[in-house]
Input
Amino acid sequence: MEEKREMPAETGAASALWYQNVSLEDAEVYIAANLKSAVRSVIAVGYYLKCVRDGELYREAGFENIWDYARDRFGFSVSTASRYMSRNDRFSKGGNSPVIAERYQDFNKSQLQEMLSLDEEQLEQVTPDMTVQQIRLRSGPFRRLHTRDSCISGVQTAER
Output
């Protein structure tokens, strides 16, 4: 016979405030979980935008292209919609699914965005513990010369 479990004694208004007065440890756990959820969502959004684009489903809603559809329905600029789809192409399982590839599961959304500009060899050198700035520095000499923090050192190097 299955044992019945009782609801916690705290119900109503008290349980609705579960998110208040969290400890640092709890906050860090929640932040990490939500960041993981956000990166999974980025991959899934890209996939479903590609479904709408590839199947020309935007026509059902009266749009001429994916860009107008994405702007009207979700407020996405062409650039934003394009980045979602590009992240899906590059970082989803098989390059075309709503699931993030296992290799990229520990990266965050900003890291994946920065990694879009890397070639395969550079991508192999990137790890989840790297900052966006560290990833950016791997993307080649032209980009390094034009990043805010390394511009001066890049010019000094060129003058030597």
About this structure: The radius of gyration is 22 Å. Confidence is low (pLDDT under 50) at residues 1-8, 142-160. The chain has nine helices and no strands.
